[in-house]
Amino acid sequence: MADFFDHLSDILFLDIETASLTEKFEELDPRLQEEWIKKERLIRMENPEEVEPGSLYFDRAGIHAEFGRVICVGVGFFQSKKKDKKLVFRSKIFGDSDERELLLALKDLLDKKKWLLCAHNGKEFDFPYLCRRMLIQGIPLPEPLQIAGKKPWEVRHLDTMELWKFGDYKHYTRLELLAAVFGVPTSKDGIDGSQVNTVFYHENDLEKIKKYCLRDVEVTARIYMAMHPQSDELEIEIVHSEESKKDHKD
Question: What InterPro entries does the record tag this protein with (predicted)?
């Protein structure tokens, strides 16, 4: 148990929210419009009734890094107070309509130490999406996101969905499903991932998305802890960055 707590503060839990690169398909660069239509032909195999080119752009482009953008990133890490039988989870949100500024701020944090990154479906979505968008924005990748040439065991990435599979490759497991089975409060109160693009472009409410993103980070962290049950029941105190000026100490 000592080793678990010794390394727990090295884990940076992470969640990203993304939107389509532009609000309307017609606003997209013409070269990207042409490429999206090709991508859309593959997507339409699932939705053969869709016939208008570009009709799937608003709903589907945000999940593809070439046609989307990062609008906020939530992060958090644990600090152990073993004497008090308590863990303090310190979280922070990076949210900005200027994607490059957001990613630069995130890079500053990721460069501070050799983090072990953890996200739900992070290996399939969050980590590669961040890498692609950083390179598109001309930002060198911070060390925790550099995986080229590394052996699998040298990549410091954790994925709660992968941990839950235990070698089973049959299906995708939603974060909300794991939250439900472990009794973790839902993060889907008021908004879910399918509504992010609408909230961002139509409601112009980035704050609502940031709050949702932070809740997802907290849920991911709680699920990770549930996957590593301890003999002692530990209280978890949540502290957002705006509530404390304390920085993380190695």
Answer: 3'-5'_exonuclease_PolB-like, RNaseH-like_sf, RNaseH_sf
Q: What is the CATH number of the domain that holds 76?
A: 3.30.420.10
Q: From the CA atom positions of the chain, what is the Rg in Å?
A: 19
Residue 2: predicted pLDDT: 55
Looking up tokens 């590669």 gives 128
Residues 218 and 186: their CA atoms lie apart, in Å, by 10
| 113-140 residue pLDDT tens | 989 999 999 999 999 999 999 999 999 9
Q: How far apart are the first and last CA of the chain?
A: 20
The C-alpha atoms of residue 232 and residue 104 are separated, in whole angstroms, by: 39
> Using CA of residue 116, residue 72, residue 143, residue 66, what is the dihedral sign?
positive
* Whole-structure pTM value: 0.90
Q: What are the φ/ψ torsions at residue 108 (nearest 5 degrees)? A: -55, -40
| Residues sharing a CB contact under 8 Å with residue 188, sequence separation 6 or more, in sequence order | 176
pLDDT 10s digits, 3-57: 777 789 999 999 999 999 999 999 999 999 999 999 998 887 766 665 688 889 9
Q: How far apart are CA 172 and CA 169, in angstroms?
A: 8
Structural domain that includes position 228: 1-21+67-240
Main-chain dihedrals φ then ψ at residue 230, nearest 5 degrees: -110, 160
Domain count within the chain: 1
Determine contact, residues 197/19, Cβ cutoff 8 Å: yes
